Amino acid sequence: MIQFINRIEQYDMTIQAVWSENLPNNLFLFLQLSFLGGNPDIMSECLKCHKPDKECMEYAIMSHNIDFVTFLMNEHEIPIDVDDCIRYDNIQAFLIHYDQTNDIK
């Protein structure tokens, strides 16, 4: 049993070392995934360190969270990708894109 506990502790220390080495990359991944998961607390913390990108917009479109889509479009000037709207059946995001650009592509 003690060997098992020691292995778990070693594994935990390894994970913590990898986590701290890759913290900036992890925070950016968490930022992207927060748009998919819809967690504004995680999003606001990650936005302190990173600017959102087009993948964040893709995740917002995928999640059908129109507030996040408009936030990314208006506050960070990230365009709505019509292909993502089609891929994820998000007509609302497409209509916002069309309303803003008068372009269907």
Automatic annotation (TrEMBL):
Top-rank taxon: Eukaryota
A Pfam family this chain is assigned to: DUF3447
InterPro entries cross-referenced by the UniProt entry: Ankyrin_rpt-contain_sf, DUF3447
Residue ranges of every copy of the DUF3447 domain listed in the record: 31-96
Record's protein name: DUF3447 domain-containing protein
